Automatic annotation (TrEMBL):
InterPro entries noted in UniProt: NTF2, NTF2-like_dom_sf, NTF2_dom, Nuclear_transport_factor_2_euk
GO biological process: mRNA transport; nucleocytoplasmic transport; protein transport
Keywords, comma-separated and alphabetical: Cytoplasm, Nucleus, Protein transport, Transport
Protein species of origin: Drechslerella dactyloides
Subcellular location as annotated: Cytoplasm; Nucleus
Pfam families for the chain: NTF2
Name this polypeptide is given: NTF2-related export protein
Function: Has a role in nuclear-cytoplasmic transport of proteins and mRNAs.
Domain NTF2: 25-130
One cellular component term from this protein's GO annotations in UniProt: nucleus
Length: 137
């Protein structure tokens, strides 16, 4: 659970805040408003990519998140967009700024594919990427 408090917690934080009014996704129709706190990494088929490093399976993902080389993360969410899938899944894209420990804030993008499971969702796919400015010519 420490890993969830460290980085996976981002998913829950972002989902609680999403969608912004302009996204047009009807969360009441998808059931997300009642299920958001039950999003988890419990499937052996769940895939997580953090800065081009791929991990599969709930236990391996939790271990990877626990071993990340920072103690705290602060976020400013700029945009959150979501699209419902034909199978009841939800694709979410989040952009914003992240500040790790005492480092300068960096731009990030993160994508989640949430799959329905009874009355909740699980994270089937997740990609997190820091966005670096282009080098000066």
């Amino acid at each position: 659970m420490q890993a969830l408090a460290k980085l996976s917690r981002l998913a829950v934080i972002r989902l609680r805040r999403y969608p912004p009014p302009s996204s047009g996704l009807d969360l009441a129709r998808t059931g997300m408003t009642t299920s958001v706190t039950h999003v988890c990494w419990e499937r052996p088929t769940s895939l997580h990519t953090f800065e081009s490093s791929h991990t599969q399976g709930g236990d391996a993902i939790i271990q990877k998140l626990t071993e990340l080389p920072f103690a705290k993360a602060q976020h400013v969410i700029n945009t959150t967009d979501a699209q419902p899938g034909p199978d009841g899944s939800i694709q979410v894209l989040v952009t914003g700024y992240i500040k790790l420990d005492d480092d300068a804030a960096q731009i990030f993008a993160e994508s989640f594919q949430l799959k329905p499971d009874g009355g909740s969702y699980y994270i089937a796919h997740n990609i997190f990427k820091l966005i670096f400015p282009p080098p000066n010519p």
